Amino acid sequence: MRRIAVLDAPTNLGLRPPTASSVPGCAKAPGALRDHGLLARLRARDAGCLTPPRYDPGDWRPGDGVCHAPEISAYSAALADRIGAIIDRDEFPLVLGGDCSVLLGSALAMHRLGEAVGGRIGLVFVDGHSDFRHPGNASYVGAAAGEDLALVTGRGQPDLAAIEGRRPYFRDIDVVVLGIRAQDEYRLDLQAAGITTRPVPALRAEGAARTAQWAHEQLVDCAGYWVHIDVDVLDPAVMPAVDAPDPGGIAFAELEILLAGLVDTPHCLGVELTVFDPDYDPDGAYAAEIVNTVVAGLAPVAAPGAVPPRLLPAGPVAPAPRAADSRPEPEPLPAPAAVPAPAVAVEPIGPDPTADDDLGDDPLGPGLLRRAATGDEPDPARSGIDIA
Questions:
Q1: What are the b/e assignments for 73-89, b being 16+ CB within 10 Å?
Q2: 271 exposed, middle or buried (CB, 10 Å; 0-12, 13-18, 19+)?
Q3: pLDDT digit string (tens) for 359-378?
Q4: Which of 20, 130, 221, 353 is the most exposed place for a label (fewest CB within 10 A)?
Q5: pTM of the predicted model as reported, rounded to 2 decimal places
Q6: According to the model, what pLDDT value does residue 309 have?
């Protein structure tokens, strides 16, 4: 089976304060989900918690750039280290946010990985909002959680959009956006950029299972992909415990089917979950629903016979941007033949300091990044300030 490792990333640095004297409650989400038995039900390894810097907007004002930018940048680099260490153990990371700015850390980890294996990593962005505000389409920016997709595709201030000199973390043609509302403010900007989208009406018309398969097919030229899930993709009638509820979302059952389809492949490298706010869930009912959905949706990862991450050889760069959700859906492609990863010089990521010791004599196993350096295959027996 493919082991899941749960890492808490309880940052709230990308959100506006609910009131002048309070802070966003989404930093409490990992604890609330753990309280409902998430790790035990997933049989997951506890990869610990990366504690964020203190939430303090100070004297930030609109026009000052992204609030908490230095703190978010430093936190993202540390989060990328932790995610890389999990993947290097041939495990499947489940990152529990926190707000959507956690995507910067995941994106940085994916860019590092893509560089190590000589390929591009894609992104499946499941979110009720496009989060595509940037200096090119807005009078000012301010909340990383409302700008995360713009930042990870290279739009915005360099201390966030180009950490370690990497820009963009994901190319526009390697991003698929699912679940935004039909009237999303930046839907035309996504289309102009060539970012493939499937808003809720199209997702519902095609069905969650077919949409997951379709998303995978859009990223066939990528070596693998990461999945971002903001729970505000759900309709507020069933999930109001978020900072910006917006009518017209999907149901828990649809999210479960969509998640299961997206992770049911070794080319899915991990998942992050964001924006659930326990302050709006006094009796824990919504936390319980999220846990039920995540456990069922990740069942294919932990099923007997599930294999560790397998990166595909990179395909050619597309000659032109794709129109958003405009192409006919191709027939399902046959599974590609396994090929050795290219030999590259890469410094292996060290063991996760939170790791337990139940993996045998070699707790790291034949990690993904070390296989990139050696060409070895694994032994099968060892397996915010949110300005509207």
A1: bebbeebbbbbbbbbbb
A2: buried
A3: 333 333 335 544 444 444 44
A4: 20
A5: 0.82
A6: 79
